Amino acid sequence: MAFSSADNDDVLSEINITPLVDVMLVLLVAFIVTAPLLNNAVHVNLPKTVATAAADTRAPVTVSVDARGAIWIDKRATDLARIPAELAALKAQRPDVALNLQADEGVPYGSVAKLMAAIEHAGITRLSVLTANNG
To answer: How do the residues of the chain divide into helix, strand and coil, expressed in percent and rounded to 5?
Structure first.
């Protein structure tokens, strides 16, 4: 805090930033404490109902990539070069075909991205990416 002496009548024009720093630190701590509590998840308890039949009785086609990078369509081995033609034929047979994509966690992302691009290029819009359940 700045004090002026009695013999000096000049106006003291220094800004004391200590209160400003104190307020900013309190705000920073408040944001740090509350930030983890803010999430976008909406917790909803869904009602229990009677089980109904699925609208699409045909099972989705599963496209898999194993740990070695081999590609499988419903347990039938294929390679990336033949994927576009096979998926286009599948789309011609079933225009509303749904795909389940599952890839081993050790597979490089580039291989999976190329496969997803081939799926999109074939015109298949119903794609589910399957993951393991931790719980």
So the answer is: 35, 15, 50
